[in-house]
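The following block was generated as part of the benchmark described in Methods. Ligand: pyridoxal-5'-phosphate.
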Amino acid sequence: MRVLAFLDGSLADPDAAHLRVDDLGLLRGDGVFETILVAAEKPRELGPHLDRLARSAAMLDLPAPDLEGFDRAAQAVIEAWQGGPEIALKLVYTRGVDGDPAGKPTAFAMGLEIEEKVLRARAEGVSVVTLERGIDTELSSRAPWLLLGAKTVSYAINMAALREASRRGAQDVIFTATDGSVLEGPTSTVVLAKDRTLYTPPSTIGILPGTTQHALFRGAEKAGWTVKVEPLSVADLLAGEGVFLASSVRKVTRVHTVDGTVLPDSTALQAELLAAYESEY
Ligand code: PLP
């Protein structure tokens, strides 16, 4: 099941062609996007996702996105959805057609089923490998044109890293900086649980501020956890009671193995954190 909607709220056939071949989102990966989880017909963290879409667009000097239009398109997708109980709702916003004097961005919302492998990872956890990202933790502030922390549609590196993980017999990746600090997953935020405290690295080191991690920390604090945003090393991950990958579609997925080292069983911890996260909705 897939549902496509444009910003005026109109629906369109997702199997038909709608974009031009000279769209700069396609030709140069010049655009931004969001993926939102819709559960029980409600988009989760819609405000933070729209804020992040606007922030990413500003980082690319795109015109400010029509957030009301994106909200309208999102609602149109949700209303027309007849698929599974959850939707992966994508909002896409590109620079539009190359050389268009009007400079009109391309914008749409699309609802997709949650992939089978994501459902399996939620249930069974994942094995990850750490892979170098080639950036230092100061680069983001020194070189804003590198767009670190913007959610651009240029995910070729992220997808290549996942294929590398697969070649190494793992299902997911934790990127590391040149000093060995933990960055993020290709499509997720890293969370460590240790001594009733949750940790995640600060987004200022050049990673995406995660809406799921934020919601999880909110819920966990209410449930009595301490939460800390501070730099983490891979050794920290190995010394904790649980490592998790958080993202909109995967929610809070448990990591059971890092670079071949099996971590302590965090199944019960995952259930507790998931309950804290779900309590926000
Ligand atoms: N980091 C990256 C690079 C991502 O692509 C994502 C989501 O896809 C996340 C973190 C997690 O963000 P969120 O929890 O807002 O989905």
